[in-house]
Structure formats: C-alpha cells, structure tokens
Amino acid sequence: MKNIFQINGIEFGGDTLPIIAGPCVIESRDHVLYMAEKIKKITDKNNLPFIFKSSFDKGNRTSHSSFRGPGIDKGLRILADVKQSFNILITTDIHSASQANTVGEIVDIIQIPAFLCRQSDIINAAVKTCKTINVKKGQFMAPWDVSNIIEKVAEANGDKLLLTERGSSFGYNSLVSDMTSIPIMQDFGVPVIFDATHSVQRPGGLGKTTGGAREFIPTLAKAAVAAGCNGVFMEVHDDPNNAKSDAASQWPLEKLDHLLKSLNRVKQAVL
Fold first, then answer.
1. What is the DSSP string of 167-198?
2. What angle separates helix 29-45 from helix 72-86, to the nearest 10 degrees?
3. What is the DSSP pairing of strand 201-202 with strand 211-212?
4. pLDDT digit string (tens) for 25-84?
C-alpha cells in the first residue's frame, strides 16, 4: 500500500525524489539565505524538488560548550525570510511539545529528531498543527518498530507522515545503514526518506564532538535510492570543515551538483 501525498505541489511517496537539504544549524541569517539560494539553483538544475532544512537549536549536542544556534524566535524569523525569499518549502526540528504550534506557523514539515521519536507528547503536538510530520527513526530502533510511531500519529488523526532512516547503532561510536529498512518501513504505507549525512556519523567519536566519514555519503545515498527511498535528506555546507555543527558529516556545496546527478541516474535506472 502506498500513501502518496503532496505538500504545495511536491509529491512524496511517488516517483519523484525530493531533496531535503541545508546546513545543520542556522549559523547566521546571511549564511542561511546564501545556502538556500545556492542549493535551490542546483536542485532546479537537476529537476529535483527541494525542501530547505536548518535547525534553530541543536539541543542534543555532545558537549555543553558546542554551538546550538540562534534559538527559536530569531531562528524562525530567519527561516520565514528564506521561505519568502525563494518560495520554497521549509522544515526544521522541534525538541518539545511546547514548540510545535510556534514552529508550525512557519514551516511546512515538522521534523521529530531520532532521539525523540518515541515521545508521545511531541508527536501528538506536532500532528495537531496539521502540518506534515517527518519522524526520524531512532538509532536504537528496529525498522518494524516504527509501527508504534505510525499508530500514535494515526490516533492523533495525522494523515501526512514521513519516516526517515538515519542508520542504526553498531557498537560504540558507530552506525550502520541497513537498506532493507527502507522497504520494511514502506510496507506500512508511509514514504521513507534516507538521511545520507547523519548515517555516516561517528556519534561522540571525537570526544566532545561527533565524528563522521563524509566520503561514504555518495555510496549510501545511491544505495538508498536504488533501494527505493522516497527522498534524500542531507546536510550541506559551503565550508563543512569549519561548520559550527556536524562538521565531519556535512556534504560540500561544491560537490552537490555532481552527487545529485548521480542520484538522478540511479533513480531513472530503478523506475
């Protein structure tokens, strides 16, 4: 069973390949506007639907001294500027039920972080905004366990749900991506996005920051598209080594066009 729906003309669950992309965290208004403009030009060039993502607050940083972002008020004003300037869909994540209504006034998709994917109050509050919900499957969950998330959304009368695969814990400071999780979760009738950048992380692997193996992003992204995912999520930065969050796992802006061309070729091959 397929659940195909549209958000402002962008189809999820069908034959298109939406790209959810942007810098991990809002570093500044100018940077976010610059990144949104550049990514939109590249996705337009490759005829791929684009949803811009950036976080206003990174509440689950490894260290208390790590940069978290501008906060909800300033961050949402910046995201609203992005939406208005480029007429694109916006998504960001929430970390508590109390943030849902405020965030829902600005964004088109509310993202539930992987560490919070089982929090019933957050899911219920997000569904009540009537916006599309994107729940990231926790690194600690089997793909078939998302059935409980789907039931929670349904019980709250939610009808537009995305699930995101972002790797599973594999020993200490490591993740592994099981591509069979994509069709397993799709069998519940929900479109599945693949997070190509968080999947290469090494959680806490650098002591006070999270490490990563950026070179494997194309491999996993292409494998996920071949496995039939309904979209690709990736964090993108123009200077990833100096990014204020997830520096080891963001994809370089200068290499985005080449990667999207590859994903398009894979998508066409498996249609």
1. -EE-STT-EE--TTHHHHHHTTT--EEEETTG
2. 40
3. antiparallel
4. 999 999 999 999 999 999 999 999 999 999 999 766 555 656 788 999 999 999 999 999
pTM higher than 0.85, yes or no? yes
The token pair at 134 is 């994107």
C-alpha 102/C-alpha 238 separation (Å) is 29
Write b or e for each residue in 39-73: b if 16 or more Cβ atoms lie within 10 A of its Cβ, otherwise e.
bbebbeebebbbbbbbbbbbeebbeeeeebbbebe
Q: Per 3-state DSSP, what percentage of the chain is helix, strand, and coil (rounded to 5)?
A: 40, 20, 40
> The domain 16-97+167-270: what is its CATH number?
3.20.20.70
Cα–Cα distance measured from residue 78 to residue 56, given in angstroms and rounded to the nearest whole number: 9
**Per-domain residue ranges of the chain:** 16-97+167-270
- CA dist., res. 187 & res. 141, Å (int): 17
Residue 76: both structure tokens together = 């949402």
Phi and psi angles of residue 82, each rounded to the nearest 5 degrees, phi first: -60, -45
Q: Give the pLDDT confidence of 211-250 residue by residue, as tens digits.
A: 789 999 999 999 999 999 999 999 999 999 999 988 899 9
Asked if 249 and 210 touch (Cβ cutoff 8 Å), the reply is yes
DSSP-derived letter for residue 103 is H
Phi, psi of 25 (to 5 degrees): -130, 150
Interatomic CA distance for residues 77 and 84, integer angstroms: 11
How far apart CA 29 and CA 32 sit, in angstroms, is 5
